[in-house]
Amino acid sequence: MNSENTPLLRRTASSLSEISNSRLYLAVFSAVLGNFSFGYSLVYPSPVLPKLTSPDADPRLRMDPNQAAWFGSIYSLGAAAGGLGAMLLNDLIGRKMSIMMSAVPSTAGYTLMGGAVNLSMLHGGRFLTGVAGGMTAASIPVYISEISHKKVRGALGSCPQITAVFGTLTLYALGLVVPWRWLAVAGSVPAVLMVVLLVFMPSSPRRLLSLGQEQKAEKALRWLRGSNYNTSIELNAIQHSINTQVKITWAQLGKPIYYRPILISVGMRFLQQMTGITPILVYLEPIFAKSNVSLEPRYDAAIVGAVRLFSVAVAASLMDKAGRKALLYTSSMLMFLSSLTLTMISHTTPCPAVNITAPNSELGNTLQASQDTALSFVPLISTVVFIFGYAMGWGPITWLLMSEVLPLVARGVASGLCVTVSWVTAFALTHAFTLLVDAYGLYAPYLMFTVVCVFCLLFNAVCIPETRKRSLEEIENYFRTGRTFTIRQNHPSVVSS
């Protein structure tokens, strides 16, 4: 009787020490190649648009401001469509197969852009790579969370963001030396490699159990955890979580166990995009050109990409130490301060720092030039701090929390909904960004991003639970009970191995 009232997950402590993570890491690496391709394709316009909008561009491909805005933003429409597709595919064919299917629109899109002879091919290819990005964004975090155990889920949950950032940095770096058509050719390689590797990886044990395939689930879990791992305890915990689920209906969405985690996930994805991260990354080189930074915009973009990769790596190392909420607070404050600085410098009209008189004109010009040079680096530094703050918290943790808090019975559909909301918001913001800049300058969008960062702080304080070192079953129990993470099982189900 005492064992029946013992917290379920406490009994797994002895088995966790026997886990071998090498194959788990291989499975995660295989999956997140899709995120590498996503990060690469998202910022593809940054080095390409300056070439396609220049007077020297091929007349068939030359873009005016409106066409350039569509080339930058239509990716988000594709990602929204991909998110809707993932809503169906995640539950229909499973997480792993959904990830593999994303390689089809990705390869087709890069082929269209690499061989483009008109603007329709460029926009069509950009849309298709967006579809692939939306599919991977909805499927990969869920797959990783379901194959990981709680000791490493925080670090592995940040891997999609890390590899997406690495893909972005790769695009910025290659853009310094590689022609834009060959950038498209290079972008198709990670998706193909992802498919080849995922063929040999297991499906999610959680999904296999939900389909009633106990033996396959046990085999998959043993492959992921190692031959010395006692799979029966973890399989029992997963089965218990599945057994407590019911077929969800629209009426049941009014229960806290369903609507609270879904609203938290949707709210985080909405606020994540409203911080302005997508238009800033997509138009990074044009933004730096408009900000009159001393360095060439393409080098500024590469610097920002490197800083973003470093900050995501730091966030991954702190995810399971500092906790999710602490990193989100830090992230929100850094983004607020940097966007506030960008708002002020983009709105301020510089005044002469010295009174330049005829006898001291040479000294005055020297001092003015020094001041202008120093001030020209403020947009770069502020943007670096903004990207650093985003990548420390609201970048990786939003993906991780979405995969952690969504209820199993609605996880496939809800993750697709989150991605769709995210990318519809990104499309509207990315398209409006160029119009706002043309009408009011950089001041207007930066001011809006500053206000959003305040809402990010408030949302983290009021709505987001701390999930550090909690299993998926414990997190689900928190929303079920509304007060505790601890699971008590009165009638444990037994899964034979």
Describe the protein in words:
The chain has 497 residues and is mainly α. It contains 24 helices and no strands. The protein has helices at residues 13-16, 22-42, 45-52, 65-92, 95-101, 103-114, 119-147, 153-157, 159-175, 180-198, 205-210, 214-225, 231-243, 256-274, 277-282, 284-291, 297-318, 324-347, 361-376, 378-392, 396-405, 411-440, 443-462, 472-481. The longest helix is centred in the C-terminal third of the chain and has 30 residues, at 411-440. It is globular, with a radius of gyration of 24 Å. The chain starts with 12 loop residues before the first helix and ends in a 16-residue tail after the last helix.
- Estimated share of beta-strand residues: under 5%
Main sheet summary: none
The computed structural class is mainly alpha
Oligomer: single chain
Global geometry: globular
Mean pLDDT: 81
Given as residue ranges, the uncertain stretches (5+ residues, pLDDT < 50) are 1-6, 8-17, 349-359, 366-371, 490-497
Cα separation of the termini: 24 Å
Q: Using DSSP, what is the number of strands?
A: 0
Considering DSSP H and I runs of 4 or more, what fraction of the residues is helical? over 70%
For the CA atoms, what is the radius of gyration? 24 Å
Number of helices: 24
Q: What is the helix/strand order?
A: HHHHHHHHHHHHHHHHHHHHHHHH
